[in-house]
Write the structure tokens for this entry.
Amino acid sequence: MNLKTKYKKLKRSEKIINVFIKYGLGYLIDRSKLKLLYKIKKNPDDFEAISLPERISLSLEELGPTFIKFGQILSMRPDFLPSVLIKELEKLQDEVPAFDSYHAREIVEQELGMNIEKLFKEFEEIPIASASLSQVHRAVLPNGDIVAVKIQRPDIKETIELDLEILKDLMGFMDRRLGNNWVYHPQLIIKEFKKAIQKEIDFTNEAQNHEKFRINFKDISYIKIPKIYWDMTTKKVLTMEFIEGVKINEITSPEYIDIFDPKEVARRGAYIILKQVFEDGFFHADPHPANIFILPPATIAMLDVGQVGYVDENIIRNGAKLLQAMMDKDLDQSMQCLKDLGILGKDFNEILLRQDFTELIESYVGIPLKDIEVKKFAQDTIEVMVHHNLVLPSNLALMIKALSMAETTGRQLDPDFNIVTIGKPFITKIVNGRFSPDQLLKKGNIFVKDSIGFIEKLPRDLTDTIKKLLEGKLKFIFENKELEKLTGEINRSAKSISLSIVIASLIIGSSLIMLLNTGPIIFGYPIQGVIGYIIAVFLSFILTIILISKKGK
């Protein structure tokens, strides 16, 4: 770190200290490093009426873009902070004063390499939205398309990097000071925040997210994803289709009573997030009302997709199984799912954890499914995990938060809304292991490749064996009493090889039928191909039993 950067860090640290002390948070400061700056200030006495979570939220808001975004990202990790603080951080508004339009034009011209008058037929000087990392201007392209131009704040990347250094020092001090009495992992908080913020300040990531969502929802007419203008998009400028709508939390206002259908919006919104999580494995991690616009009567537009999450088959399958196991009061299955999800570390007391989970499960006994709140259920579960010093995988935490936000919004739109009821078919499908024809085809193709490899090697291996036998290089050493056992072993091996060839032939033939797409159709695929796959799976089970039996003997 050079002298200029050190000076900037000192001045910024002084600003942070002043704000913390202003809100009665001086005890968070490492006095050993900032003793002089700390001495000249006094803690105020007028914050006794304001709760600690409120003071923390107010201080982050005053400290500007990095700290506002820090609070917002933390609010999405209920396993990192106490629930009372999470609740307050959720209120942080991502609305800060706009920066000068002169700087906005300058950034656009530098990034796109052309005068703004040539880039746009019209460019509105006053932004239509201003957030912690960027602001958005409405513009018209030369061909008449109306677009939204998202422009990154000047020098925001440098500001974030400097603030990250200070936050790292602050969290390091808290870690040392609080030690084992604090179970929320300060250093891990900074690591997760750094990873999230670095992705978000590169607008090409957001543009790619839009394209992925466009592909995933191409067959659903009531979802609208803005078109991206890639030739006018860089790391600092994002140009997309302009969509005019109403924020999802405003459609219940009296002025819109005959324009929107809130109940249908709630149902569609829940289906959208459930599909993203349980089918696509790629979801909008921050679906709060400012990011979701509604077009009459119930079309949903996703606007800001800078924060996304990914879940693989393991998380989807075991997450669904965990929910089902807890509903079924199956404690053993619940523990197994926690292990499979990678939540259980080395240092935990399994007996005490089982006791706490038993109490948690029992507290929901007798409550009808329609009355269970995902948000509260997830919060209670996470509190048990935190108590035992367990940490959720980051994307699992984001998934829980996204589902909780969808539930909260849905209940605001429709008092009878229940996301558990809507989500149960998704969970049942995953728990019961039912795969779509596409998934079966994918798994079948993998098996085909493995089988073809086996068949390709089989003639060569047999040829080598026969050659060695003719040359006298292959010898069998056995006693007469083992002759019967050896004969049986050869017979079983021959049956296994024959059955493997039959299975491979069935799969290859079925795959060819699928590719040619001929004959009667079922589930969108030729019925002969589907039947071939089913027979191959059945024979595979028989082969597995033979091999297990062989191994046991």
Remarks:
- The chain has three domains: 3-93+159-199, 247-434, 437-552.
